[in-house]
Amino acid sequence: GAGVSQSPSNKVTEKGKDVELRCDPISGHTALYWYRQSLGQGLEFLIYFQGNSAPDKSGLPSDRFSAERTGGSVSTLTIQRTQQEDSAVYLCATRREANTEAFFGQGTRLTVV
Amino acid sequence: GIQVEQSPPDLILQEGANSTLRCNFSDSVNNLQWFHQNPWGQLINLFYIPSGTKQNGRLSATTVATERYSLLYISSSQTTDSGVYFCAVERPGGYNKLIFGAGTRLAVHP
Q: Is the pLDDT of residue B53 over 70?
């Protein structure tokens, strides 16, 4: 596609429920990143994919968070048993190869009530 | 890990004024990007500038990699320039993650 597409744009969920966030990368972009931005804060790295593998998962905050990428394309970030502190904007970025520009999607705003 | 510091943290300008935003980083980098996060939360690419100088309209940027800093210049500011400006860097070695600074929050008043 023309840009990085994330869905849904907004998600309100009850505490304890599981949620799935989706990222569709720009066509041909092999590297994909997930970040989290809490209200008024900077961007916190979560996980990086190269193709379908995840060489860097160091930013995942707990074992309730997981992510996968299939076909070197779409990625899904799953949060199990959501907590109120998971409320944030989840951003996906992709890029074609090393040492090139990264482009961000519009984000998914997650609210846990 | 690498540290990224942006200054000033907050900036208020009158429309038409010029400003300089700074990004200092603590280690060698092979990638540096400037982003503008608009009030709707969208991150907009401004510059991919691991070294040298680039200009795009009223905006320009300079990165001096050997001295570990980058500057973003905004001239003749407009209210639409308001938002948060982020600097992000990447260490050498391949597909490393972009490390973000805390940002500079800019408000341009008419």
A: yes
